[in-house]
Amino acid sequence: MNAIECSNIVKSFGEPPLTILKGISFTVAKGEFLSITGRSGSGKSTLLYSISGLDKINSGTVRLLGNDIHSMSEKEIHIFRNRKLGFVFQFHYLLPEISALDNILMPARKVKEEKKKFKMAIELMKSFNIYHCKDKLPSQMSGGEMQRTAMARALIMEPEILFADEPTGNLDTENGEKVMDILLKINKEMNTTVVMVTHEPDFASMASRQIHLVDGQIDYDSKGKNK
What is the Rg, in whole angstroms, of the alpha carbon atoms belonging to the chain? Predict the structure, then answer.
């Protein structure tokens, strides 16, 4: 079974509608690491939001792990996201009033599995070299520490698919490389399917596959599915 199956995705915004995604189709195998690239305005973040279910699409189908996510109810997709999907964004979106450890455990708390996931949270913090931030508030952490905390939060429920939208966008080169090392590690060691939007050519090339968008269409797919 593929992790992701997209068929003829169309996404428009505004009135009169401006079509951003123009009939995009592709599949992503389980365990694959896909980078999505393209110039600003090419539709790469819109594509990530559309295939992850964060945005509704106008037409087409998206199947994640065999599930047609755009036919799910809000409650169903919320449960599915929390159990099966992880999200990392350009901005960390940590809750400012609670510690790094509590931020990481937030998805587990939502399903009353905080105690069950406590040991894993500690292991993630140690693995990502942020254990020293365990009791710190986000305001007491560096940008790199906050982003690695956000990644640990995204992984606490052991998602099968991780979506990352410009995860290195606000980081310097050193911290960006640390984030990429984490993404490559979880892809290889946990067989997590990773879909990453990036404008960084060096980071994009680290993925096992690259899709390049031009004006809302696939211009190039490194697996050979050219436009």
Answer: 17
E strands of the chain, at which residues?
4-13, 18-28, 33-38, 59-64, 67-68, 85-88, 161-165, 193-197, 209-214, 217-221
Per DSSP, the residues of 14-31 read TTTTEEEEEEEEEEE-TT
21-68 per-position pLDDT tens digit: 999 999 999 999 999 999 888 889 999 999 998 889 999 999 999 999
Residues 6+ apart with CB under 8 A from 114: 105, 108
Q: Are residues 163 and 87 in contact, defined by beta-carbon separation less than 8 angstroms? A: yes
Task: Give the tens place of pLDDT for each residue, 85-128.
Answer: 999 887 878 999 999 999 999 999 888 898 999 999 999 999 88
- 161-165, strands of its sheet edge to edge: 85-88, 161-165, 193-197, 33-38, 209-214, 217-221
Residue type for 133, please?
C
- Decide: 178 and 154 in contact? Cβ < 8 Å: no
**pTM of the entire predicted model:** 0.89
CB neighbours of residue 67 within 10 Å: 15
At 73 the three-state DSSP class reads: coil
Sheet with 4-13, strands from edge to edge, namely 18-28, 4-13, 59-64, 67-68
